[in-house]
Write a structure and sequence with these properties.
The protein has eight helices and eight strands. The protein has 220 residues and is α/β, with parallel strands linked by helices. The radius of gyration is 19 Å and the shape is globular.
Length: 220
């Protein structure tokens, strides 16, 4: 029978192991979070993620709740961070699934749903682990510390104070780390300095984070 589809991708798991070991070595003592969103960028998350966990990945990141569920069904046990949106109907599942959620702004759906769920449970039943996203110049999502540090820190501190949220991480995303142009290297350094300043300001307010991360592949 003639194949209807005449192109396909063959994923070399040996090459995947090799590449991860290079990242692991370059990272040194730092933990490595494997970003496997969009079906591990089309490579098959149900195969890729368990292999990376075996090779020593410390955490994983995905786009949405459904992808996190897929990793758990594939046997992944390490912490998972959702980078994108999670619907209110899945907030309680986050609380029991060992899955963390990105909190990117004061007005976000997660922020409001945790207030709502906390009210429903009388402050007893729902606790969602969150990583606060700091916008240091990427301009996509996050507390905009590059534009207004004082306001960003105040809103981050307010999010940390919500009884339904447990802040476990803080991070940013580099916009030009793949460039070796001097101005882009300086821009990446500035982003890093802004993140460090935000973390210091938060610590002064009594808010600390177990996980602080910023390096994408290019940054690493």
């Amino acid at each position: 029978m003639e194949f209807e589809r005449r192109c396909w991708a063959e994923v070399d798991l040996g090459a995947l192991r090799h590449n991860f070991k290079l990242v692991r070595e370059r990272a040194g003592d730092a933990a490595v979070m494997a970003v496997v969103k969009a079906d591990a960028y089309g490579h098959g998350d149900a195969v890729v993620a368990p292999l990376l966990e075996q090779e020593g990945a410390d955490q994983f990141a995905v786009s949405g709740f459904g992808e996190a569920v897929c990793l758990r069904r594939a046997g992944v046990t390490k912490p998972i961070l959702i980078l994108g949106y999670t619907g209110v109907q899945n907030a309680a599942a986050l609380a029991v699934g060992g899955i963390s959620q990105t909190e990117a702004q004061k007005s976000s759906d997660l922020y409001m749903k945790c207030r709502y769920l906390d009210e429903l449970t009388g402050g007893r039943g729902v606790v969602v682990r969150v990583h606060l996203k700091v916008d240091t110049g990427m301009g996509r999502i996050g507390f905009t510390a590059d534009d207004d540090m004082e306001r960003a820190v105040a809103e981050m501190a307010e999010a940390c104070a919500l009884p339904g949220l447990v802040p476990v991480g803080v991070f940013t995303h580099f916009a030009a780390a793949d460039s070796t142009a001097p101005e882009d290297i300086a821009y990446t350094r500035r982003q890093y300095d802004i993140l460090c300043a935000a973390v210091e300001e938060m610590a002064a307010r009594g808010c600390t984070f177990a996980v602080k991360h910023c390096c994408n592949s290019a940054g690493t």
